[in-house]
Amino acid sequence: MKNMKDRDYTHAIQIDTDKCIGCSHCMQVCPTQAIRIVEGHAGIMSERCVDCGECYRVCPVRAIYVKDDGLSVIRHDAYRVALVPSVFIGQFPSEHTASEIMEAVRLIGFDEVLEVEQAVDFMKKEYARFAGEAENVVRPVISSFCPAIVRLIQVHYPSLTGQILKIKAPHDIAALYVRKSKEKAGIDPRNIFICYVTPCAAKIVAARAPVGEKVSAIDG
């Protein structure tokens, strides 16, 4: 088994060293001590970073940024579905309705726009099943909902990894549901493109490289 330093990690948090002024704000707020100032510039220790975004939040010169796929990855020859979290709608002024925002996202280049929260019902069933088996479970049980927390446990509290609830993330469940429903509707699975829209750096990483999975259900 590879040790932490020998593994390959995917990260959304990146540093533009040309902009970095070496102020150390990011290093001071990092919860996993993943940042060091070397030769006047901040650098990220990949094996420690959990993509929580605290460094991004405090950088005074915007040298720290979140690397996403952007719209260029959208396959225009496929049936395109955008998955958005409900919090996405709350980022817009109140005069815009949810349906207006969803329609605006669709017009960017999607055939359909769906909320990730449609996966909650599936998760409820899994939680209920888990509760029925609770007598045989080591406590405390830790939710796997937040990928930054899962990664934090892997980095700093590895003895607790066995107590993380083994349930797929909502965006993964939603993506799998969309794929199956579109296949049943007669769409070739090779021609289904699913894009996950999220303001969270850790969830970008979770979508690109889900823990314990060889392939992500998300395409971009």
Integer count of domains: 2
What would the average pLDDT be, to the nearest integer? 85
Secondary structure category: alpha/beta
Please tell me the CATH architecture of the largest domain by its name.
3-Layer(aba) Sandwich
CATH class categorisation of the largest domain: Alpha Beta
Overall shape: globular
**Fraction of helical residues:** 25-40%
- Portion in strands: 5-15%
Q: What is the fold-level CATH name, i.e. the topology of the largest domain?
A: Rossmann fold
Helix and strand sequence: EHEEHEEHHEHHHEH
What's a concise summary of this model?
The protein is an alpha/beta fold and 220 residues long. Helices cover 33% and strands 13% of the residues.
Structural features, described:
The chain is of the alpha/beta class and 220 residues long. It has 8 helices and 7 strands; from the N terminus they run E-H-E-E-H-E-E-H-H-E-H-H-H-E-H. It is globular. 26% of the residues are buried.
